[in-house]
Amino acid sequence: MSDIEGVINLHREGTMATASLNSARIAAERARADGVSVELTLVLDRSDAATRDVAKSFAARSGARVHEVNYGDLAESRNHAVRCGDAAWCGFLDADDLWSANWLLAAWRLGCSAGPRTICHPAWNVIFGTKQMLFPQIDQLDRRRVLVVVTHR
Question: What is the pTM of this model?
Answer without folding.
Answer: 0.86
